[in-house]
Queue: 2 jobs
Job 1
Amino acid sequence: MNAALQTQLDHLVDDLARHDLAVVDHFLSPDEVNDLLMLDAFQGDLLQLKRAGIGKDEGKQINEAIRGDYIQWIDRERAPAPVQRYLAKLDALRDAVNRELYAGIRDAEIHLTRYPIGTFYKRHLDQFKKDDHRKLSVICYLNKDWHAAQGGQLRVYPADAPIDIFPEAGRLVCFRSDKLEHEVLPATRERLSITGWMINQLAELRYL
Ligand code: OGA
Ligand code: MN
């Protein structure tokens, strides 16, 4: 692994252990971001993606009053090269949290995400009511030159004061899925990201 990534992961592990939350700027380089932005899922019509739902299995429903994003799940075997490169970095992240924090992560479930202008995701926790396999939420943003006035921040709610994180290109956010409530505020421009969860079982098993 290269030394820069190693340093970023050392900081991430420290911040996660201390605050249940870590923010890593420049996790992806501008070139890596550009390559991801070229993907059909980001360039093409929104209708090739799915409306994201809430809940799971038979309890699943679409509710625009709660979340308005469109998603495309990533199948690791078929993922194009720019996604593979991102997944390789997430593998390094997984190894770091397993080694340093005994996180017990075995797999990840990941989707490409688009929030159209004005859409949001209301305050929530990333664990499902009857399923606690999601251990870490990991989001990487792809929006160049994002300005605070454009909104679209991730607002995280630790015990003390809320923290706002803007979705600037290359920035990675990682937090405890079972602990930190959060929300996505509406933005005046489209908001793109790769959203994932590190889970403590194999992803395929969850869909049997
Ligand atoms: C989610 C989520 C946050 C973000 O997809 O569950 O909370 O900043 N995303 O996109
Ligand atoms: Mn969430």
Note: The CA atoms of residues 152 and 187 lie 4 Å apart.
Job 2
Amino acid sequence: MDLKELKLTKRRSAILDDLGIKTVEELLMYYPFRYEENICKPFKEWEINDTVIFGAILLSQPSTFRYGKRSMTRFKVLYDDKELNITIFNRPWLKVQGDKIVIKGKYDGASKVTALNYSFHDIEDEIGIKAIYPLKENIRQSDIQAMIKKGLEIYRSEDILPLSLKNKYQLMDLNEALKEIHLPSSKDKLKKAITRLKYDEFLRFYSTLKMLKDSNETSSKAKKIDLNAIDILIHNLPFKLTSDQQKCVDDILKDLASPYMTTRLIQGDVGSGKTIVAAIALYASVKAGYQGALMAPTEILAKQHYQSLKAILKDINIVMLSSDTKKDTEIKKMIEDNKAQIIIGTHALFSDDVIYHNLGLVIADEQHRFGVKQRRKLKEKGQDVDLLLMSATPIPRTLASSIYGDMDVSTIETMPIGRKGCDTYLLKSNSIVSIMDEIKKTMASGKQVYIITAAIEHSDAIKVKDATNLYNSLLEVMKPYRLGLLHGKMNQELKTATMNAFINHEIDILVSTTVVEVGVNVKNATMMIIYDADRFGLSQLHQLRGRIQRGDDKGTCYLLTDSKDENILKRLNVLVNSNDGFYIASEDLKLRGPGDILGTRQSGLPPFILGDLIADTKFIEVCKKDANEIIERSSEVEFQNYYAKIKSLAILNNID
Ligand code: ADP
Ligand code: MG
């Protein structure tokens, strides 16, 4: 429904504009973030410091004293046969209308009340449970409350929830729930309203997801798996696969052999060995007669994959497609003519001018950096493409299946044996002075060091160490050791050159922003210093220090911070005490919520308003089951309408 129907003043229209609310439906979905309960108690039950609300009769005119910019206004009222002295600060304009007033304030004992607020409404209007809305500057609660009240009066929402489900859980009627969530008539009703709306939210999300998953199940040709060749490949590896790696390989082979296009997420901590799993999958695809593509988020990472895959898959023709090689046309021709069997690159892999001969498998490394659309685009490059996504931001299994409900998930939980891990220290000072000797000792022993900063250049707005200035100030101090600088504003060529210099040990100490975060493998680097560690998420810090756990030596990581905030220090100490990515991710989730960690839209993270992915796992399970049932039985009269509505919404939001 159009907002015009509300007949708003210009000022209120502007408020809705500011909040991004475009329809009456959206306004009614602007839910309160908390509630206040106003109970009117008789005077004899008051205790000192109680917050009290009461309707009183005025006994005297307000008199105001001003002192500087401040003011104090006083008057007398009668409540419950008791004469009370009211004080209210900084309301010099208070004018009395009639002889009644409602006061909300703090009882100071004796006959004194410090008022926080007042109104000339009926006391009946002020008591009960009051919704409090999230606000921006210059917007008043009363504005939102009034607009929502009006919205509720003129708008009736169509309830599409199948009746059988509504009855099964005795869910509240939709319009009643909308009214109760904004204007609760009792705690019990409010609870029921939230349950109803939350149920709708989850049900809609998981129905859409299930619909998506089903529509993704386009049939493709089943790939013929050459088990013999794969066994030989695995047998000839310089190490034995961990049982989790083996399980992933088995899952993938099943996907390839299935007559549907499949999507699987492989998640495993940094260093858990996902690359080899990818290599085996690509090999299987090639042996089945299909090309395979591996997409990395950066050129550097693509290059590393190219090199490691060439070492493992000696009898396969592997090419690298980068956005800046001159040989590109030649390589593209090889791809089209099926002379290249495995193709590695960045987004360049799905440019329009790259034509595959027979693409059968696409792998996206560090998938949370790729949007849903990009994934789809790559898949469209072939008829029989299976998709494999690799993520190093592991999340607990139950959560993964709710977030990534549209794909299957395989998890590598155990690390390859012999990992030395990393010692992490928290330094409560944003300076390396105290560890200068350690840093130099590390380089003297022939090892390399990363220094990570949160910013590229100096800015007055945020006070953090920046890579550029730090690099300049260290040039002299670090002599004779060789310094490098790496950040996102450098051009691609310079970035690659610097990273290569670090890989080839022509640089001892690399000052960098988080561009080194993803996947990069420099075994000789064993120390990392992270400035302003409080600026990063736990999972991100864990990913970063994964860079120094690649070789045979134990890594050392220093987290620097100036913060004195107990909670921040507690959060950072999670990293000092644990090197388990799953544990760290779940702590991070508890502290910050999933949106921050996974990047909402990109990962397809559900935009729940009322629902909470962490707290509502049981609730979610129920809704998922119901959603699956609706979609499976969508042709039955009972579910037809819901299905059709969900489908049209999905199309409207462009998510099918
Ligand atoms: P990530 O999961 O972070 O992508 P990689 O695939 O880069 O990790 O693996 C990290 C290192 O572990 C590589 O040097 C790889 O050769 C090695 N590796 C992988 N699997 C095993 C294994 N089963 N046993 C021993 N080392 C392994
Ligand atoms: Mg990797």
Note: Residues 239-242, 245, 268, 270-276, 392, 416, 519, 521 surround adenosine-5'-diphosphate (ligand 1) (CB under 6 Å).
